[in-house]
Structure formats: C-alpha cells, structure tokens
Write a structure and sequence with these properties.
The protein is mostly helical. The chain has one domain: Up-down Bundle (Ferritin), CATH 1.20.1260. About 85% of the residues lie in helices and about 0% in strands. The chain has helices at about 5-35, 40-65, 75-90, 95-125, 130-165, 170-180. α1 (about 5-35) runs antiparallel to α2. It is elongated, with a radius of gyration of 20 Å. The chain starts with 5 loop residues before the first helix and ends with a helix.
Length: about 180
C-alpha cells in the first residue's frame, strides 16, 4: 500500500506494532524461563498476558479504522529480539548478571514500543479517531508501567550482579596477573 496520506501512515504503523507485539508474545516465555529472579520471571509472565490483551486491542483499533494487522514484519522488533536471544545464549553468566542483561533487553523493547505507541496516538488524535486513541493510550500506559516495573526490579538485580563472583575466565586471569 503506498503511503499517500497520514491515514496510510497510521495504518502502516499499526501493522508494524501488530507484528512487534506478536513477536514479543513468542519471546517472553523464553525470557521468563531464563530469569532467575522470581520478580523478573513474574514480570515477564504478567507482561505476556498483557501483551496478548494488547494484540486484541490492536485488532479493535484496526477494525475501527478499517484495516487488518496482517502483512507487515516489524524489522525493528525483530532486531531487538535477536539481541535478546544473544543474552539467552550466554553460557557463563552469573544468574544475577543474566537477569540484568535480560532487563536491559526488555527495556529496549519497552522503549521501542513506547515510542511507537506515542506516534500512533498522535496520528489517531490528529485524524479524529477518538475511540482508537483511547485504546492506544491504554496500551501505551501499560508499556510505561512495565518499564517502571523493570526499573524497580533492576535496582535489586543490578546490586546482586555487581556483587557476583567473577566467572572462571576472569578469576583465572586475576591469578595469572598476581602470580607474575
């Protein structure tokens, strides 16, 4: 579909968000499983349920504006999730350091979503889509709350990661340096 009007851009951005949310639904269970902090596991599980509701809400928005969420792949979210997968593949991380890295990856995703929802809210307002705007604002508020929750969890996790024992490679380097 060519982008000729703000309505076209609005629908294009909604499709992008639909794809992004669908990708997040697939990634969150893996993140929850990898987390060692109970609070972080629960935050990921809660956000998974919330994200499912957000997809339903996006379906409602699409219906209101006469569009469908199909047909677009959000490459930005795909990249962020790929980076998150790298964290999941980390073999020698301490549990606290892995949790800190998971939070960092999750917050990048949240910030991406907050920016995207802010944009579509602006478009909905300018185009006079009041009902769609209310639904989109609800999701944006949830994304902002999730970001705040992750920040709160990070305050404890980051302290634990800072105090974690160094990995074998780091401690063997220390021994080599002190032996000289």
């Amino acid at each position: 579909m060519p982008l000729e009007t703000l309505q076209d851009v609005f629908i294009d951005q909604l499709k992008d968000l639909y794809s992004a949310e669908s990708q997040i639904i697939k990634a969150l269970p893996k993140m929850a499983k990898a987390a060692s902090s109970h609070d972080l596991q629960q935050a990921f599980k809660d956000h998974l349920e919330q994200t499912r509701e957000q997809v339903t809400r996006l379906d409602q928005v699409m219906e209101l504006v006469g569009a469908t969420g199909k047909g677009k792949k959000c490459k930005g979210m795909e990249g962020l999730i790929e980076e998150g997968k790298e964290v999941l593949e980390e073999k020698d991380a301490s549990p606290a350091a892995l949790d800190a890295a998971l939070i960092a990856a999750a917050q990048r995703v949240e910030h991406y979503e907050i920016a995207a929802y802010g944009t579509v809210c602006t478009y909905a307002k300018q185009l006079g889509h009041r009902e769609a705007l209310n639904l989109l604002k609800e999701t944006m508020n949830e994304e902002e709350e999730t970001d705040k929750r992750l920040t709160q969890i990070a305050s404890q996790v980051n302290l634990e990661a800072a105090e974690a024992e160094p990995t074998r490679a780091a401690s063997s380097n220390k021994k080599t340096r002190t032996a000289r």
